[in-house]
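Entry type: protein chain
Record version: 2
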Amino acid sequence: CMEFTTVLNLLGLHRVEHLLFKCRPELVGKIENVEMKHEKCIKCGRPNVFKWYFTFISDDKQDSYCVSEICSNCMKGKYSKEITQELENRKKQLILNKWYRIDEDDACGFKNYETYNKITKNALDTAMKYTKTIINEQTKNLLIMGSTGTGKTHLAKTIAKTAKSKGIKTAYIESVDLFGLIKQTFGNDTNYQRFYEEFKSFDVMVIDDVGLETNKQADISWHVNEWTKLVNARKGKSTVYTTNFDDITLPEVVGKRASSRMYEKSDFIDLFTDDYRKKKLRQEGDGNV
């Protein structure tokens, strides 16, 4: 064989055997008539793969061995694709970690949401119906307004967790952290643009405690302007907002345009009722009397 002769001339029989034994040390002293030949790569079809042929001394049985049936050129391309995919997966995970801020051991669920009066019972029913809507890939917003301690965050987290478990690209973030991300882009237009690209990319976005991000009178104008951009950016996507503010005070915090658009194509949950935690403490106190 011309190809074998060429390889043998270049390497020599001892070198051919040495290479094989480095890969298969258990064959030392057990084989003879070792040959090395070119074989076709199973991907590109070119004769770029080396394969050893040999005979077992004990029974004259012939066998062969090939490190890989894919040549080095194709292997490089394969690894390049795998590396690219791995980098892409890591990038997606970093983005998810930035936007989905619910601990893995978070216990919030529909089953353990405390319904202690008609208002909270209606809230649970509405949240469950809304979740079914977005799971069925229908676009709709949800505005949860209510007093502190009535379970707004519990319902918001449950909606986000359920949507994510169904394979829906979901984000959950508190408004304070949301505006913290915006502030990190100050002075960098590219990062600011990337922020909005990521913000718009989620099929379901849950923003908790809207209004708590504004704690300085001087920041109100900027926050109102930014809220308008944020709400507009979510057009055509499902967004859940929770807030302690009511119909009158919310527009003062996020602006009339933003608050008006939060109401568009939205379901509503009214949780202006007794603080469950205070109610429970009172009940426990009465029981200890």
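Comment: The mean pLDDT is 87.
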